[in-house]
Amino acid sequence: MKRSGWIALVLCALALAAGGELAHWASRALFARSGPILFVPKSVGPEMEFWQVVGQGVDAAAKELGVEARTEGAASETDVDGQIRLVERAIPQKPRAIVLAAADYERLVPVAERIRKAGIPLVLVDSGLKADVADSFVGTDNEAAGRQVAEALLADLPPAGTVAIVSFVKGSSTAMERENGVRSRLGASDVRVLGTLYSDGSPDKAYALTKELLQRMPDLAGIAGLNEPSTVGAARAVQELGAAGRVRLIGFDSSTEEIRYLEEGAIQAIVVQKPFNMGYLAIRTAVDISNGRPVEKRIRTGSVVIDKRTMYSKENQKLLFPFR
Amino acid sequence: MGVRRLFRFKSIHTNIALAFSCLILCTTLLLSYSSYRLSSRSVARNSLDYTAQLIDQVNTNIRNYIDNMESISSLALSNGDLQRFLSVPRGTPEAEALSARIAGFFHALVASRNDMAALLFVGSNGTVISDRPNAPLKDYSELIGQDWYQSARNAGGNVSVSSARVQHLYKGEYRWVVSMSKMLRGPGYGAPTGVLLVDLNYNVIDDLCRQISLGRRGYVFIVDSAGDLVYHPQQQILNTELKKENIPLILGSADRSEKVADSGEAKIYTIRSTGFGWKIVGVTYRADLAGDRRNMQLSAAMWGGLCLLAALGISIWLSFTLTRPIKQLDIHMKQVEKGNFDIRVDIASPNEIGKLARTFNLMIGKIRELMGQIVREQEIKRVSEIKALQAQIKPHFLYNTLDSIIWMAETNKMREVVEMTTALSKLFRASIGQGEGEVPLAVELEHIDSYMKIQAMRYRNKFTYAIDVAPELRGCPILRFVLQPLVENAIYHGLKNKAETGHIRIAGRRTGSVLELTVEDDGIGMDRAAAEALLAPAAGDAARTGSGVGVLNVHQRIRLLYGPSFGLAFDSEPEEGTTVTIRIPYAEHHAFAESKS
């Protein structure tokens, strides 16, 4: 009995060690984060400053929340098929969540539905989808931003002046929302609003259209540019025709070129979105969803009006000159 | 009371197991908890120390950069050219030459260092010297309106260090820098002054801070003396409702660690001051800090649980093995209770329980032996009882006696007939009484008197007899029918074959607590061997006849009742006679309520 007791003790110790290892392994398997969060911007091209900053927000949130965020995207914003393919490839890998900036308002809907069907949380960032499939949308309130543009226009406009709108893609949700914002605010004033010009996202087209308009209507009091290329094209036309200061131009988004026009007085003010906040909040929302916490359906990241006077303020220089 | 009853378990097994378990539970819990506490505390302390070291290192590095910039600016300023440049009138060829020389010097300085973004000198007289002579500078009026120029002028001759800012000296060029500017006075009162600007690439600070990792989520940020952030990894969302840093606390704090709460989560600031008003703050999350606090908790709990399980198993096993022999013993005792003595407990262990088992076996053996003895003795008693009764009145004796009575009646000896019949009647009455038990010596003597009377009449002139027992001894209790076989023996073996008239004498005397009765005859006697054979049971009944059986029976009965130290003793000499001594314990005033009836 003495010896069998010792053997039992030794066996117990061995079992204990084995059990401990097993438990350790099990705990690691159990508490390991279940995969990375996939962030799919409209484009991963280095020239797209906007998405770079969104990416910075994504990284900051990922680090703060202790999750891994992987960024994958098409090289160009117009490569819708590329984005669809990319997302389809990602679904079987079961990421913890997908943060998607839909390159197309309609064509991304089926793949978004497949994401949801696979049980993967989906957070849309910046651009929404036609169908209500996502768990949450994080982005600018474009209508409010449009109203901000109108507000900035009205700040210094001759009574009963005429105003033109240079929009980008006809039928794009963001373009429509922004235009609605602008028109609703301007409609409440005595300003006359002309029909919308569409630049199709090309600064050259915006330049040509604006130039033609300015030549046709020399008494034009103001122009609202609804995205960055549209604004830059319009500004070029205004500057070229020596109309800077006479025609009040309010732009959208920021770029080095836009800032230069702002400094030179061709653009009076720009409405700037908060891409960092978008990325940051999208990741936070995605983590919340994957942890089973309730989230808001629409999260507004806000936009700011910046003019020449305020462009180097501490807050605004962060928005205008994203670091790196 | 109720609680105590709750814990009063019936089996030792449960008690031991429970006691062990409680003990183990307490120790394991205590150990697990304390080891968790200790390790988490030491991990927290270590990582705090580590954080402090890292922050110190960042501090040193940033200081070095700033010091370098300062020394460069003083180098530039101490260069005589700049002084001279301020003193010579604008537009002169000398001024142009100096300007070109200084620009070349600036350019060399900036080119030699990748952490320097720009060197610029702006004079109050409208002159501007840049390290990049061909770059499109902004208008003079715009330059002197910029923050760095203004703050240098406000600082007098001291170095002014800006926060992180976008430098916009050149058209279309926007760089993140930290600007250091210093005003330079020209020679003499009223002479033009100038401001020297040194821009430090913000990348340098960004890289420095970004590469510091404090735990999983910790980070470093820098705040300047005005409370503006020089660096923060999440600059963009800072001071919104999403994220806040407790700037007033940092500004008011000395170089130490401060605990703060950030949207419900505990953070620790490790604050260090640089020499020029910046404060470098390391942020560690408490949850992060304790390393894998959760992991540690988990592993402590898990190991504790495992140990507990193992210990519980061992304790149950131990209590089982400890109590198994006791249980075995218990089962055997239960059998004994039921009356089964034919068992043995097989516990070979050398411990107390083994000893107990051995003692138990011994005890059971003894009991078994004693019980066997009792059974045997009972049997002997029963047999001897019957023999005693048989021995009393043998049919022969009865015929002979009756023959004698008839003969006496025929010869008209009526007095003898009456006498003999009376004696016979007494004899019979005595034998009808209780088979076993004691009677006073007087009763026994009366009985033997009757018997001897009958025998004396039958064997006329063969013997005379006398009973010589002191009256005070006659109350002593004595086993019934012990004297008759002895007397019978004396008559048949001692006197019957003697020619002359013999004599039987029954005497009694007390020696201490022993009563000695003697039956003494002067018959033919016997040799020593024959006398001894009378009391030897081994000889068997067959060897003896008649009264010999009776004598042995008497001996055995006395010894059974009174113990082995009592009994009969023969003392005989051939031709001399025989004396039988009966030794019984003496007792007085015995109650004979039953036996008298």
Distinctive features:
heterodimer; A: 324 residues; alpha/beta; Rossmann fold; 2 domains; six-stranded parallel sheet; six-stranded mixed sheet; 11 helices; elongated; B: 597 residues; alpha+beta; Beta-Lactamase; Heat Shock Protein 90; five-stranded antiparallel sheet; rod-shaped
Summed up, what is this model?
The complex is a heterodimer of chains A (324) and B (597). Chain A contains 11 helices and 12 strands. Chain A is an alpha/beta fold.
Q: Your description of this structure?
A:
The complex is a heterodimer of chains A (324) and B (597). Chain A is built from eleven helices and twelve strands. Chain A has 324 residues and is α/β, with parallel strands linked by helices. In chain A, strand 6 (162-167), helix 6 and strand 7 form a beta-alpha-beta unit. Chain A is elongated and about 105 Å long. Chain A starts with a helix and ends with a helix. In chain A, 47% of the residues are buried. With 597 residues, chain B is of the alpha+beta class. Chain B has helices at residues 2-6, 12-78, 80-87, 93-112, 140-143, 147-154, 202-210, 247-252, 286-289, 293-338, 352-392, 395-410, 414-432, 441-458, 483-495, 528-534, 547-562; strands spanning 116-123, 128-130, 159-167, 175-184, 194-201, 219-223, 229-231, 257-262, 265-273, 279-285, 438-440, 463-468, 477-479, 502-511, 514-521, 567-573, 577-585. In chain B, the strands form four sheets. Chain B has a five-stranded antiparallel sheet, sandwiched between helices. In chain B, strands 7-6-10-9-8 form a five-stranded antiparallel sheet. In chain B, a hairpin with a 5-residue loop joins strand 9 (265-273) and strand 10 (279-285). Chain B starts with a helix and ends in a 12-residue tail after the last strand. In chain B, 31% of the residues are buried. Classes of the chains: A alpha/beta (324), B alpha+beta (597). The interface between A and B is large, with 41 and 37 residues.
